[in-house]
Amino acid sequence: MSLKLKSDKYKKARGGSSKLLEISCAECGEIICDYQKDGPGSLKRMYFDRISNPVVSISEKSLKCSQGHLLGVAIIYKKENRPAFRLVIEAVTKSYKKKTLQF
Ligand SMILES: [Zn+2]
């Protein structure tokens, strides 16, 4: 399966490079979703519009795995007025997805 990366003003604002990550719960190992990370730096927030294939419901207030471990809390990133989860850094494991299409 190939996955298409989104390209828009948010990506451009971050320098135009993106990578696709697989996000999982650090405590139980459950895979939560795929996430397109735009630009350099560490992952501190996950914007709702960059989350794909979630295996748990993405509620509006918090991100939890099916075991109930808290992975993030919903915020509005004020600079862009953009809904996101602020991640509990040590609760989340990130790994790179290999098959991505670059545009
Ligand atoms: Zn968990």
The portion of residues forming beta strands comes to: over 45%
Overall pLDDT score? 89
Largest beta sheet: what is the strand line-up?
5-3-2-9
Please write the string of helix (H) and strand (E) elements: EHEEEEEEEEE
Number of strand segments: 10
Task: Describe the fold and architecture.
- The chain is mainly beta.
- The protein has one domain.
- The strands form three sheets. A four-stranded antiparallel beta sheet has the order 5-3-2-9, with no helix packed on it. Strands 4-8-7-6 form a four-stranded antiparallel beta sheet, with no helix packed on it.
- The chain is globular, with a radius of gyration of 13 Å.
- The mean pLDDT is 89.
- The structure holds zinc ion.
- Zinc ion (ZN) binds next to loops.
Layout of strands and helices, then pairs:
Elements: E1 3-4, H1 9-13, E2 18-25, E3 31-38, E4 45-47, E5 51-52, E6 62-64, E7 70-77, E8 82-87, E9 92-96, E10 100-101
Parallel strand pairs: 1-10
Antiparallel strand pairs: 2-3, 2-9, 3-5, 4-8, 6-7, 7-8
The chain binds zinc ion (ZN).
